[in-house]
Amino acid sequence: LVSVKKKEGEKRMPISENAKAVLERRYLAKDEAGNPTETVDGLFRRVANAIAEGDRHFDPKADVVATARAFYDMMTNLDFLPNSPTLMNAGRPLGQLSACFVLPVADSMEDIFDAIKNAALIHKSGGGTGFSFSRLRPKGSTVNSTGGVASGPISFMKVFNSATEAVKQGGTRRGANMGILRVDHPDIMEFITCKNDTAEITNFNISVGITETFMEAVSANGMYDLVDPATGRVTGQLNAREVFDAIVQSAWQTGEPGIIFLDRLNRDNAVPGQGEIESTNPCGEQPLLPYESCNLGSINLVNHITRTVAGWVLDRAKLERTIRTAVHFLDNVIEVNQYPLPEIDRMTRSTRKIGLGVMGFADMLLYMGVPYNSEEGVALAAEIMDTINTIGHQESQRLAEERGAFPLFDQSIYRDGPPIRNATVTTIAPTGTLSIIAGVSSGVEPVFAYAYIRNVMDNTHLIETNQILKDKLVEAGIYSEELMRKIVEQGSLAHVEGIPEEIKRVFVCAHDVSPIWHVRMQAAFQQYTDNAVSKTVNFPNSATKAEVAEVYRLAYTLGCKGTTIYRDGSRNEQVLNIGKVN
Ligand code: ADP
Fold first, then answer.
1. Residue whose CA is closest, atom 19 of ligand 1?
2. 434 C-alpha vs ligand 1 centroid, how far in Å?
3. Which CATH class is domain 17-96+286-436?
4. Where do the structural domains in the chain lie, given as residue ranges?
5. Is 281 part of the annotated catalytic residue set?
C-alpha cells in the first residue's frame, strides 16, 4: 500500500525549525517510550498514502500512486495542509481525521450523559465538539420522575467541562468545546455571565444564539419572549436592549460570549430536511447538524502568488490546481475516516461536508503591498474566496460525476441543479497549528505582531522579526536591531520614527486595523464561504462598550454568521490561543 516510497533520501522541505519542533512534539507517530517512529517526511508520506487509498473505493484500478504523489507534493510544498487530526491519525490505527463535531443534547439525564460520553470519545481522538444546550429545561423546572427541580443548562455545562478536563487528548490536545444557548432560553442571563469568573467552564468557548426576532426587538427597543424548550410555553419576557447590552458588557469585560446568528446559519443549511442547525464547532467556523463531523483543509496563499515585473500577483493557474487537488483530498478523507460513533459515520457520509479555506492571507497582502485595512485588501479577499468557492464547487460536481452526489442530495438546496459531491465545500478555519507548520499568518487574520522577544535559555532574549518585514527593511537600507527593538516596545510600526510611510501603510498589525475593517474583511470572506469564517475582531484596551455594540450590529448588517471580539488585556487565558505567537 505504500505508494509514495522513501527514495533518494529525505525530501528537503521548506519547513522551518520551529515547525519541525511542533511536528515532532505533537504529530509524529511515537513508540511506547515516546520516541518518534517516523520522520517529518514520513508523516507526509503516511498521510498522502492513506488518503489516496480513498480512490480505490470508486475504482479498484485507480492510479493511487499518482494521487498519493500529488497529495504528498501539495503538503510538503506547504501549498495546502489538512486539519491536525488528519496529520496525526491518517494511516494509523485510530484513523479519526475530523476536527469538528456537533453532538445533540436532549432534555433527559440519559441523553445528557450520552453526550458527555460521546464528547469524551471525540476528544480522545483529537476532535473538537460543539453543543447547543437550548433544549434543556430551565433551572427550577420540575423533574417528573423525581419531583425534584432541574438544575438548568449552565450547571450541566460544568459537568461537560469537568469531563473534558479529565480527558487529555492523546497527550497532545486538550478538548475544546463550543456551548451555545438561544437568546430566548429562560436561563439566558445566567449563560451570558457564566464565564465571567475566568476559572469556570474553561474548556468551552460560548456563544449566544441570536435570532432575527431578537435583533428586531433590539432595534425597536422592545420586549421579546422567553420560551421553555421543554413545554414550548412562553415563560416571560425580557427587554431586548438590556439583554444585548449584557452580552456587550460581558464580551467587553472577558471576550465572551460570542454571538452567532441562527437564522443566517439556517438560511445556508444545505439539507434543511434533516432539521435545524443549532450549533457550530469550537471556533465557530463550522455550523453542523447533530452528529455531523467535518474535515477542514487550508490553502497557503503565500504559495499562490508569483513575482512579475509589476510586483507580486495571484498565480491563478496554480491556485486552481491546488483547489481541485484539495477538494479531491478532502472528499477522500470522508471515505477513509474512521468515525468515533456509528451515528457520526452515518450523518457525515450522508452530507459529506468538507471545509476548504485559506491561511497566510495577511502575509500574501504584505508581499503584494496591499494594506489589510483597505478597499483593495477587502476586494482581494472577495476575489480569492470567490475563486476558491467557485472552483471548489466545480470540482465537487466533477467528483459527483465519478462518485455520485452526496446521499441526501435530493433533500438539499442543490437538488434542482447539477449533482454535487459535498453539501458544503468552503470554511475558513483559524489554522492555529497549521499556520505554524506552514510558517505563515493564521487564517484570514492580520499579522499579530511583527517583532517580539523570545526568551531563550539562560535568560537571554532574542528579537524575532517577521521575515517579510525584515526583507523589506533590509531592501530599504534601514534595518537595524535598534529599529526592531522600537517595534517590539510599541507593538506596531505605526509610530516608529524612521520607517517610510509606504511601509507603515502596508505592514499593519491586528491592533492597527480598526474593528470596522476587521468586520468588513470577515464579511468579504463570508460572502463566498459555504460555512463560516473564524475571525476575532481585536479591540484596544481603551475600547468602549458602544464600540463593541457597533461591531455586533455591523456584523449583522454585513451578513456575517457570528462574531467574536477580544479587547486587549481583558483575559489572561483563552481556550484556544488563536494567532498566538510562540
Ligand atoms: P489546526 O490548525 O490544528 O488544524 P484550527 O486552529 O484550524 O486547527 O482549528 C480548527 C478546528 O479544530 C477548531 O474549530 C476545532 O473544532 C478543532 N480544534 C482546534 N483545536 C482543538 C483542540 N485543542 N482540541 C480539540 N479540537 C480542536
1. 128
2. 10
3. alpha beta
4. 17-96+286-436, 100-280
5. yes
